[in-house]
Each structure stands twice: as C-alpha cells, then as structure tokens.
Amino acid sequence: MRHPTDGTLRRLVDEPAGVADADREHVAGCPVCLAGLASAQEDAAAVGAALSFDSTVDVDAGWRRLAGAAEGRPGTVVPRRRRLALLRSPLVAAVSVVALLIGGSAAAAADWLQIFRTEQIAPVVAPESELVKLPELDAFGQVQVTEEVDIRQVADAGAAAKATGLSVPRVSRLPKGVTGDPTYHVLGRVSGVFTFSAAKAAQTTKAAGQTPVPPPPGLDGSQFQLSAGPGLAAAWTAGRPVPALVVARAVAPTAASSGVPFETARDYLLSLRILPENVASQLRAFSSDGMTLPLFTSVEQLASTAADVGGVPATVLTSRDGAMAAVVWVIDGNITVVAGSLDADEVLSVARELRWDR
Amino acid sequence: MVSSPPGQGTVRTDLEQVFRTAYPRVVAVAARVLGARDEAEDVAQEVFLTFGRSKVPAGEAQAWLSVAAAHTALNHLRSGRRRASREEAADDGQAVSPDIADAVVTRDERRRVRVALARLPRRQAVALVLRHSGLSYAEVAAALDLSPGSVGTIVRRAESALRKELNDHASSD
C-alpha cells in the first residue's frame, strides 16, 4: 500500500475519525508515516500556540455598535471593553458562570451570601473548539465592573507586599538558565456585580439551538458579587521578551449571592443544556463542593497532571510543544502559580522550595 | 471591505440572530490573524455590515462570515493599516499576568506570526486560520470549495511554511 498523503497525516493529528481505517492501520505500522505524523503534530502544536488568542467578546456591546452603524447613526461608538475583557481572563472568568454552577453554601456576610470560594483548582480539559463555545457571563444578564483590572510594575518586593498585603515569594534556587533579579508587579482587586436576566438567558438558550426554560421564581434580577485579587508577581525576564520564570500569587476568586439559593441558579443553568456536554460532565463531577475553581484547559495546547506542593494538591500544565510549564495550587484562599519556559520538574522544584517573605 | 455608507440599502431581518450566534467565532478568526482583539472586533463589524446587506443564504452564513473575517483580517495585515500601538496596548500587563495562555506567545512572537501569515499564499492562510479557529475539515472544505481531503494537505503546507518562517526568524535573532 502507498503511504497516505501528508494531508491525511495532518488530519490524523486532530480529526482522526475522518481518516479511512486502512490509512490509520498503515500509519500505525509504518515507521516512515509515524515520523511524518510526529512532524505534523509538532508543527500543528507550534502553529496552534503561535496563533492562540483569547478572543472573548461582549456580544451585546458588539450588537449595539453594529445596530447603530446599520441604522446610520453617526458616531455610534461603543467603548472598547478591553478592561472588561481582562476581567474575563481565565483567572477571573472561571468564577463567573461556573461559580453559579458549582457554588455551595458558606458563611453569610452582610446581605450577601458567599456561595463560592476557591480552595482548590481542577483542570477541565476540552478541545479548544468546545472551550470557545462556553457562554460568557453577560449572555445571562448584565455585568457591572466595580473594580477594574489594574496591573502595574512596582519598585521592589517591599512595594509589592505593601500594595497587596500579600507575602512575596523568594525563590531558593533559580533553575538553570534563569538569571538576574526579578521585576515585581501588582494586580489590584478586581470585582463586579452580575445581575441575572431571564430574557437574556432565554435569548442565549435560543441562539444555542435549545428551547428556553422559564427560570424559577426569584432568579430573574437576582445579583451575584464576583471578586478576585489583589495579586503580585515576580518575573525573571533577563532581557528576554518571554519571562524565563514567573512566580505569582493572588487572592483567589470568590462569589456571593444576594440571597437566591445557589442550587436554584445551578440547576437552572444546567437545565439549559447549552454547555458542551464534555465540559458540563466534568463540571458536574465537582459541582457540589463550592470550592473547586475550574481551570479551562485546551487539550490541543496543554497537558495537565496532578502533583503536590508541600502536601497541597497542585495541577501541572505543560504546553504540547514542550516550550513551557506551570504549576498552580491554592492554599489559604490564595492561588499561587509558578510558570516559565521550563519543564515540569523545574517548575515543581521551584514551587516546592519557595519561601514567602512576610 | 465595506465601502458604502452604513444605513443604505435594506438590512436583512435575520442579522441580529446570525450576529449573536456567529460574532464570537468571527472575532476569533480575525483575532488569530491580527493578534489584537480590538482590531478583530473592528473587522467583525465590517464583515457583519457587509453580510447585513447581502443575500447570503442563512444556512451558509457561518461559513461565509468566517471566510470573510479571515480575508478581511488578512487584507488589514497586508495593507499596512495596522496600528502597532494597539497590539502593544493589547499586550500591556499580560506578559506578567499569571495567565498561562497569554504568556505563551509574546509580543515579538506575535509580530513574527503576523508577518509570516501575511507571506503565505492566501488560500493556505485562510484554511490554516479557519482550522485553528475550530472549523472542522468538512466546514473548511465547504467554506473554501475544496475537497475535505485537500484541506489537510493545505493546512499541513501552511503549518510547515509558518513554522519554518518562525524558526528562521528565531535563529537569525
């Protein structure tokens, strides 16, 4: 049998079901084709990483802008929502829709009932094509940012500690190839209030091709407070564009409700059947504890494994192209990340030997 | 791509429904080409304005919009209409955020990727971007009027060329 084409080998990388059985069998036993497949995998992973871009969007703002332009209203400008988009970076976004899905009951504070606090992290692994289908929080209501993202460099470790109230990491031994002194950066507290809208939820459900379900009494108009940070990071860049090593710590996301029972919101959102099933089933697996922050992980780009740092469960992420690794864990309500252009053993070694200045 | 003033001509009645379904993907396609969210949103607006005045059948809207987004974004890249400051603004602060995905591709790498993308034959670039935006082989094939079998070949060639460009630049640094 002739060797399958390069195109067939490429399809084996990410859509093997589309490749004929005969070709698959041939490749499995052919050293030449296996080498070609490995090369295709490497190129696909490298290009995938190079093209990756977090393009979360505000559909409502986009629609208002388009509707204004289509109606010929001159000067219809919707402010760019870069800062809001930043609020939706994976660290913070994960607490949004998902907080409603996985929260639980905890201590009440003032009129707000804390329904979610991050005590551990678990990867939710799915193809990127499914992750991009995850609805944004504003697909279910209005998001009002009360404290915007503010990241800035500060002079030294002392300034970072003072600005955030967090202890500063001290790396006992730098990995090979990492040199120089770190620069310090701080992130202010980020928070927002989400107001649930039955009308918007129905619209989103319809757009996803599902039948809208009326929400239970009390949910329409109910509010949720979401917050994360402050945080700080030490970055060793040594003149390179990519930090060779970053050690960061931030107050982990929390969510509080204005009183609607958590189970009401969770059961309703799950009943809409608009999350990709693969993602929904993983979320259901830890949906009852109200303490596990999902870390959405693209199966094409990252591999995740479990480890421990000082006896605390941790998640190790490595890029498929081997270019970088990270380890993330939660302790005392703080998320800590050690990441860099290193391998998994190196980031774990740094993580396990960290000391924290008070 | 959009030249006539907005508001002229009849706007199709299903525009909002199509917009709400397809906007995230259209922005995602453009963002992969441009590496800047704001600029990608501008491209998406252009594409939807054109779509709103078109008679593209509703069933073909997704594919049409994805291809239009890729072409329009590539046009932006090649016509030099990009504003470097935007890309830099988009990077502001992210290099040190604990966001792992953002740390993978740095500003310089992004710039190299855009240069390399602009050098690819147009069809390769579009197929590559569509596949990496989550369209299946069958969807890419339908959108570009190709056979599903040839999509793999074109994407493979594009990836090989792009990686070579990236490696060449990296080694000449």
UniProtKB/TrEMBL annotation, chain A:
It comes from the Bacteria. The chain crosses the membrane at residues 91-113. The keyword Membrane applies. Keywords: Membrane, Transmembrane, Transmembrane helix. This is DUF4367 domain-containing protein.
UniProtKB/TrEMBL annotation, chain B:
The keyword Nucleotide-binding does not apply. Keywords: DNA-binding, Sigma factor, Transcription, Transcription regulation. Coiled coil: none annotated. One of its GO terms (biological process) is DNA-templated transcription initiation. Residues 19-83 form the RNA polymerase sigma-70 region domain. Residues 111-162 form the RNA polymerase sigma factor 70 region 4 type domain. GO terms for molecular function: DNA binding; sigma factor activity. Belongs to the sigma-70 factor family. ECF subfamily. This is Uncharacterized protein. It comes from Acrocarpospora phusangensis.
